Amino acid sequence: MARIITADAQLVDIEVEALRTDAIQSFVKQETLVVELETDDGRRGTGYSYTIGTGGRAVLSMLREHLLGQVIGEDADSVEQVWHRLFASTRATAVGAVTSLALAAVDTAMWDLRCQGAGLPLWQAAGGFRRSVPVYDTEGGWLHLDAPTLVEGAVESKKRGLRGVKVKIGKPSGGEDVARLQAVRDAVGSDFPIMVDANQSLTGAEAIRRARLLEPLDLEWIEEPVPADDLGGHVRLARSTSIPVAVGESMYSVSQFREYLAAGAAGIVQVDVARIGGITPWLKVAHLAEAFNVAVCPHFLMELHVSLAAAVPNGRYVEYIPQLRAVTRTELEICDGEAVAPDTVGLGIDWDRDALENGRVA
């Protein structure tokens, strides 16, 4: 039995590769929480989570002052036990973003150790359903881009063989959203998937109205149309439209997903490893969604989510938003429109240690 003998965390700032805007915010930078765990048998596990510009030091404080000391001496392969022990110790701040982000950084490092101990890549250790998953592009669909630029990006994504594009919506008028999307649909054809994302910017009534305007465009899904804690609004929208409703990136517990799925409010589940608290609860959400016959299309973190989406039967898409290129030596492999899960032992992320050190701010 291998025991954890050291645990450390750092905060690394990674600048965004392109201007990223949606209906409520801009992606300022990726505050990246990196956790390193070492064991007495020589394993070194690296895990991470993130924010898009604020709160990173609060998460770092949670890690350093409360969580990391508790993992010293723990069995490196007892992932479930460690996760539950850490979660139980954070009852005063759970369920919430800071706690979940901190737990995720530790849990992903634990899974890295576990995979190393088993001699397996993550996609196999977590389930091993298949090696690759279709990938769609978000990077060309930000809200500040005009219609010609959206069209150019969508056409280029289709030429590259990607399996769809996501376009941000939430303009002041529904007509403007429709015009932008119609231009993209005309350019890519009727059989190319288009997803839309409102980033929680609409009221329940406006979401229903706007979905009706968008239905003729045959969209793959409408994402986060109303605030993530508005379960009733999602239920009413799901009952009123033929467009699948996608939710999950702003949910922080398995029980929240259970409530949405049981109410018929989630047609697509977009669980995010960092925001749900790690790989351990991510897999629970994925299997829960499978029980409801709902696909999983995880939010962001493509370098990690490719392995998890490949691990489960209902993993349907990986979202293409490159953000780790500045601190890794290799990039996500894409072949024939599918993201390929790394076959190296562990999480499969080839960290550039010098780059991480250069970006460290705390």
Automatic annotation (TrEMBL):
UniProt xrefs under InterPro entries? Enolase-like_C_sf (IPR036849), Enolase-like_N (IPR029017), Enolase_C-like (IPR029065), Mandel_Rmase/mucon_lact_enz_CS (IPR018110), Mandelate_racemase_C (IPR013342), Mandelate_racemase_N_dom (IPR013341), RHMD-like (IPR046945)
What are the Mandelate racemase/muconate lactonizing enzyme C-terminal domain coordinates in residue numbering?
147-244
Q: Does the keyword Thylakoid apply?
A: no
Q: Please give the superkingdom of this protein's source.
A: Bacteria
Q: Which cofactor does it need?
A: Mg(2+)
Protein keywords = Magnesium, Metal-binding
Q: Which PROSITE patterns match?
A: MR_MLE_2 (PS00909)
What the entry lists under SUPFAM superfamilies is as follows:
Enolase C-terminal domain-like, Enolase N-terminal domain-like
Q: What positions belong to coiled-coil segments? A: none
Q: What SMART domains would the database entry show? A: MR_MLE
Q: In the UniProt record, does the keyword Membrane occur?
A: no
- The protein's name is L-alanine-DL-glutamate epimerase
Which species does the entry assign this protein to?
Answer: Jiangella alba
Lineage per the UniProt record:
Bacteria, Bacillati, Actinomycetota, Actinomycetes, Jiangellales
